[in-house]
Every structure is written in C-alpha cells, then in structure tokens.
Amino acid sequence: MDTRLYKTLTLQTPRKGTTAVVINICGTLKLAKSTVYRTIREYQRTGQLARPKARTGRHSKLQAYDESVKNGVRQIVHSFFLKNELPTLNKIMAEITRRGEPVPHMSRTTLYRFLKLINFKYVKQFKVESEGKSDEKLDYVSASPRFRS
To answer: Which domain of life is it from (predicted)?
Structure first.
C-alpha cells in the first residue's frame, strides 16, 4: 500500500474516521480491510512502511538426504531391474532394511517422493486378461440393464 493515498484521503476528509478512509482505500487498491488496517497501524507507529517479510516454505525432509543416501537407493532400485523384477515400494523398503543402508527410516509416502526426487518415474502396470474373461465381462455389462429394472 502506498502512503500517499492514505495521506491524501486523510487530508481531503479530516472529519471522517479511519473506517471511511480504509473502505475508500480498499475499493481503490482492491486490498483486504485487514491488510489496510495493519499497514495504517504500522505507519502510525513507525512513520514509515517496511517491506513485507518474504514467507518461506516448509523445509522438506527430502533435502536432508545427501548423495550417499541417493546413490544407495538408486543402487537398490537398479538391482531389481538387473534381476528382472519390478521394484515396488514395499520391495524397496524391505531391501533397504535388509541391506542396512545408511538410509534413515522413511514412510512409503516419503520413499515415493524421494524416488521422484531422484528422477525415477512410477509407471502403473496393468493385467492382461484372457479372452474368455473379457467376453464374460462384456456379456455381464450388456446384460446389467435388464437386472436393474
């Protein structure tokens, strides 16, 4: 908020209270009333306006892991591919605890986010059904309106 607008409005309408000035500023600058009240109060106390503090985000647990942890998990995932197995989260977690890698305990969600961080992608697998089952499903789906009535 600019202090010039506040000064101008208070000089133009000295008899009106702060509420009228705040409503006018809110309409002009499209700001929330609480923001304008807070800014005016700060200006009246200190005589100047400070820049708002930059808000910092939450610190991620993933940033705490160093390169040795990342390389250890990469090695585990690649070992599954060498054995022609699909690495699932449960298998990776079990392998981490079995090997005693220098990886701190992490939940499934944290492990999933960690794998995304080190550029592994999750590809959803699908089952290939036999033709007999798909025909049975098609028959059931086409016949289901008859059963509903």
So the answer is: Eukaryota
pTM metric for this prediction: 0.47
Instruction: Please state the domain extents for the chain.
Output: 3-46, 61-117
Question: How far, in Å, CA of 120 to CA of 41, rounded?
Answer: 51
In angstroms, what CA-CA distances link 97 with 73, 105, 116, 119, 126? 11, 9, 20, 22, 28
pLDDT digits (tens, 9 = 90+) for 17-57: 778 888 888 888 888 888 888 888 888 888 877 766 777 77
What is the DSSP secondary structure assignment for residue 64, as one 8-state letter?
G
b/e per residue 55-71 (b: at least 16 CB within 10 A)? eeeeeeeeeebeeebee
Q: Give the closest residue to 114 by CA, choosing from 96, 100, 127.
A: 96
